[in-house]
Amino acid sequence: MKKFLLSFLMLACTAFAQYPIITTKYTADPAPYVHGDTVYLYTTHDDDNAENFMMFDWLLYTSTDMVNWTDHGAVASLDDFKWYDSDNGAWAEQVIERDGKWFMYCPIHGKGISVLVADNPYGPFTDPLGKQLVWQREHWNDIDPTVWIDDDGQAYMYWGNPELYMIKLNRDMISTEGEIVTHPKIEDYQEGPWFYKRGEHYYMAFASTCCAEGIGYAMSDSPTGPWTYKGDIMPHSSRSNGNHPGIIDYKGKSYVFGLNYLLWAEYQAKIGQTYTHAERRSVSVAEMHYNADGTIQKIDFWPENGVEQVEDFDPYKRVEAETMSWGEGLKTRKAEKVGNMILTNIDDGDYTRISGVEFGDAGAESFSASVLSVHRSSSITLHLDKVDGEVIGKAEFSADGIVTVPLSGAVGKHDVYFVFAGDFEADYWEFEDSKSAVPQGPFNEPAVISATVTGVSNFIEFENYDVGGAGKAYYDTDTDNQGGKYREDRVDIVSAKDECGDGYAVGYTQKGEWLEYTVNVQVEGTVAYTLSYATAMESVSVQLFMDGEAITDTLVLESTGDFDVYTTFQGKTTKALTKGEHVFKVLITSSYVNLNWIVFGESDSDVTKKRCESTGIIPKFAATSTNAGVYRVFDLIGHELGKVRLNGNATLTDVKTGLQNSGFRAGAYVIRNSAGKAFKINIEK
Predict the structure, then answer these.
(1) Distance in angstroms (rounded) separating the CA atoms of residues 330 and 351
(2) Which of 20, 293, 337, 560 could staple 282 via S-S, CB 3.0–4.6 A?
(3) What residues have CB less than 8 Å from 653, skipping those under 6 apart?
(4) Cα(59)–Cα(382) distance, rounded to whole angstroms?
(5) Quick one: CA torsion of 322, 324, 329, 331, rounded to 10 degrees?
(6) What pLDDT does 312 receive?
(7) How high is the pLDDT of residue 470?
(8) Cα gap 99→119, rounded to integer Å
(9) Burial status of residue 548 (CB atoms within 10 A of its CB: 0-12, 13-18, 19 or more)
(10) CA–CA separation, 646 vs 630, rounded Å?
(11) Where are the domains of the chain?
C-alpha cells in the first residue's frame, strides 16, 4: 500500500483543501495542549492496514501558527507499560503539564486508565506506577480520560463510555483523592469527554451518540457538575462517522479539533472503490466561537480551507522537512542516523507545502537541504503559491549531505511548495536571509596569479577560502567542521605539518564538495601550477575552475601513503587565463584528499621554498610585530566585526586591551592591516 495516504488527495487539493491537518499518517483522538507559544497536538495512531482498531502508540505534532505542523513521531507506546501484555489498545489519551512535568493519561482498553510522566513534551515518557491509576474491573468502560487543573490548583479527571466518571487527582497528578463519581447521563453523550474551563463557565464537550457521531457539549458552574446539555458544537454527520473533540484557546482564538474518515474515504473514491468502513481516521480543526452567554456557536462541518494562519512562518531558522501544511505521497519515520524524524517515501512528483512563509522585503538568498539515503540523482524544486508556480530555486544532488543553492524571487509572503524528484529522504531545510547574508569576498587579500612565483602573495592556502558561507564560498556535505580547526563553519579543516612547519589544510573531503577563492590574475594565457596535497587512498582527484569554467582536466593525485604526508602535483592549465579579479574554484571529484595549498606560475627555485620564506598561514600574534595604524577585525569565519587602532610595536597585551576597549569580548579574532598583514588573537574570559 505504498503512498496510500495522500497521493490520491493532492491531485484535487483545491477541492479537498485542508480537511485533515495531518497527511503522512492516519491519526485520531486529538488532544491539543497550549504551552508557551506552541500548540502540542497529541494523537492516537491508526495503522495503515487497520480494518478494526490497530493502535500501538501515541504521536505528537506541534505548531505555532495552526496551519503548519511538525511531526515528532511516536512519543509513547504500549511498550512503556511493562505490565501490559497486549500489543494493541493505545486508545485516546490526554496530556497536561504541571510543575515542570508532563503527564499523559492513557486508557488501556479493558485494563483501566494509566499515566505516563516525562520531563518535557517530547518524552521519553515513563510509567511511575507500574499499574493502573484507576480500574473498575466490573466493566470495560474506562476509556477517554480528560484532565483539567482548576484555578484553585485542584485537578480533576473525567472519562468513560457510555457512562461519565470523575475523580480528583492529587498534586502529584499520579494518585487520586476520594472515590470515583458516576455522573448522571448527559443527553446525547457517548464517549470522548473533553473537560475545560473558560471564563466563569465549565464545559464538557464530547462525542455525541453513535452513529454517526457528532460533537455535543454541556456546561456547569462547578467543576463537579451538575452538567446541563447545551446542544451540538458539530451535528451528527455521516461524512464524519465518528468524532472525539479537543478544544483550546490560542493566540486570541478558540479551536475545536476532531476526527473523521475523510482521508480513507477519498482514497477509495480515487481508486474507484465503493466506500467500505475501516478504522483509518484523520484529524481536522475548525475555529470555534462563543456567544455572550458562554454557549458555543454551531459548526456545520470541518471547513474545506482549514483555519486562518495566526502568524507568518519564519523561514530563517532550521525547518524540519516533516513540517508542512500539506503533503503528497509522503510518510515520516524516526531516523537513528540523525536522531530525529525525517521525510521519507519520496518519489517523483511528491511534494510538501509550507503556508504563509514571510521572506521579507530583502528576500531569501539561498536554500540548503539536508538529504540522506540518496539512491539516484534527485532534486528539490521550490515553487511559490502553487505546485506548478514560479520556480525560485532548484537543489540537485546525487549523494547524502547538505546541498545549498541560490534563490531568485523569494521575496515577500508566499506558500512554498517543495516538489521532489528522485529517490531520497530529507532531514531539514534552511533559508538564508539576503539582508543578513555575508557577500562572497576574499578571506585575506586576494592571492596574486602571475607568470612567476615571487612570494607568499602568490599562494592560495586552501583553508583561506572566501567568506560568504555555504553555497557561495563553499559546499560541504556535513554540518560540522570535523577537523575542528581554524574556522568555525562547515568546512573540515585539519592541522597540517609540511616543509614550512605547522599549519592547516582542508580535510575529510567528499566527492562533490568545492571551495572558492577570489584571486587577482596578472597574466594572460595558460599558466603552470603546483598543488600540495596528502591522501592515504590509492588515488584521488580534483578539478580546477575559474569563474565556473574548467581550466584543467580532472587531476588524478596518487597516494602519499598517509593523510599527514604531503607532496606536490604539478601541471599547466588547459584554458588561458585573463587578467583581472576572478573566482578560482577547486572541485573534489573523488573523496578523501587533504588540500594544503596551490600556487600558479613558474619559479626560479623550488616553489615550496618561496612559500616557506613567509607562509600564508595566519600566525598567532607575536610581540613587537605591528605597524601603527587601523586594523580590521574579523571572526574566524571571515565576518568583519569592526576596527581597532594599534600603535607600532604593540605587545600582545596592548592588542588585547585595544580590542577589549573597542568592545570585543572573549573569543578568537583575526586582525589585518591595510597591507594585508594578519594575526590571530585569542582573548580569554
Answers:
(1) 8
(2) 20
(3) none
(4) 29
(5) 30
(6) 95
(7) 77
(8) 10
(9) exposed
(10) 6
(11) 7-288, 319-433, 447-613, 629-683
Rounded alpha-carbon distances, angstroms, from residue 358 to 107, 190, 312, 316, 415: 42, 44, 6, 9, 9
Do 319-433 and 447-613 share a fold? yes
- Name the nearest CA neighbour of 278 among 304, 254, 242, 323: 242
> What's phi and psi for 530, nearest 5 deg?
-130, 130
Average pLDDT, the chain: 88
CATH architecture of structural domain 447-613: Sandwich (2.60)
How far is Cα 558 from Cα 567, in angstroms, rounded to an integer?
10
Which residue in 9, 24, 42, 41 sits closest to 425, CA to CA? 24
pLDDT tens-digit series, residues 371-405: 999 999 999 999 999 999 999 999 999 888 889 89
- Number of H-type helices and E-type strands within the chain: 5, 47
Q: Residue 617: its pLDDT value, please?
A: 46
Question: Buried b / exposed e across 591-619, counting CB within 10 Å, b at 16+?
Answer: bbbbbbbbbbbebeeebbebbeeebbbbe
Which architecture characterizes domain 319-433 according to CATH?
Sandwich (2.60)
pLDDT, position 139: 85
Q: pLDDT-derived band of residue 7, with 50, 70 and 90 as boundaries? A: very low
What one-letter code names the amino acid at 338?
Answer: V
CATH number belonging to domain 7-288: 2.115.10.20
Q: Convert the pLDDT of each residue in 178-191 to its tens digit.
A: 999 999 999 999 99
Tally of residues, the chain: 685
Average pLDDT over residues 302-317: 91
Residue 618 cell numbers, joined: 595566519
Concatenated DSSP letters of 2-19: TTTTTHHHHTTHHHHTTS
pLDDT tens digits, 234-258: 998 877 667 899 999 999 999 999 9
In sequence order, the β-bridge partners of residue 519 are 447, 582
DSSP 338-384: TTEEEEE---TT-EEEEEEEE-TTT-EEEEEEEEES--S-EEEEEEE
DSSP string for 76-95: EEGGG-TT---S--B---EE
